[in-house]
Amino acid sequence: MKDESSVVFLPVSNINETLKFYGDVVGLKIVQKQGDSLYIFDTGYGYWGFCQYDDGRKPLSGPKGVCLSLNLPTNEEVMARYEMLKDSCNVFRKPQMHPKYPVYSFFILDPDGYLVEFQKVAEI
């Protein structure tokens, strides 16, 4: 038996802000809408679902929260994406090599404070 794909569902505080950020700013495509408060975006490798729950659930952001990573094919594309996003996003960390892991990346924060990483993992 083989899994077809995966979806990570994350709570958000304002689904409309999340839609604008991931759709208009980051450029991900919506592949499914469930009601007015749950949207699933295609990352190219799997799916991220964002839901504004009405049970008081809070986003899983902050220093010990969730990091969402998007893999890019080259370091140059990481830098190009950074140049494209830096003026319209809250940059958490500028592009650099990770001090411990073979990863070149930068981080931005989404409207709920989730870390969004754009990275190139070095070939080993």
Notable characteristics:
124 residues, alpha/beta, 2,3-Dihydroxybiphenyl 1,2-Dioxygenase, domain 1, four-stranded mixed sheet, 18% helix, globular
Describe the structure.
The protein is of the alpha/beta class. The protein has one domain (7-121): 2,3-Dihydroxybiphenyl 1,2-Dioxygenase, domain 1 (Roll). It contains two helices and eight strands. The protein has helices at residues 15-25, 75-85, and strands spanning 7-11, 29-34, 38-42, 47-51, 67-71, 90-97, 103-109, 115-121. The strands form two sheets. The chain has a four-stranded mixed β-sheet with strand order 1-4-3-2, with helices on one face. A four-stranded mixed β-sheet has the order 5-8-7-6, covered by helices on one side. The radius of gyration is 15 Å and the shape is globular. The model has no long low-confidence stretch (mean pLDDT 92).
Low-confidence stretches: none
The total domain count is: 1
Shape: globular
H/E element string?
EHEEEEHEEE
Summarize the main sheet.
4 strands, mixed
CATH class: Alpha Beta
Please give the count of helices: 2
Alpha-beta content class = alpha/beta
Q: Estimate percent helicity.
A: 10-25%
Cα-based radius of gyration, to the nearest Å: 15 Å
Strand content: 35-45%
Distance between the termini: 29 Å
Total strand count, please?
A: 8
What is the H level of CATH, i.e. the homologous superfamily?
A: 2,3-Dihydroxybiphenyl 1,2-Dioxygenase, domain 1
Summarize the structure.
It is built from two helices and eight strands, in the order βαββββαβββ. It has 124 residues and is of the alpha/beta class.
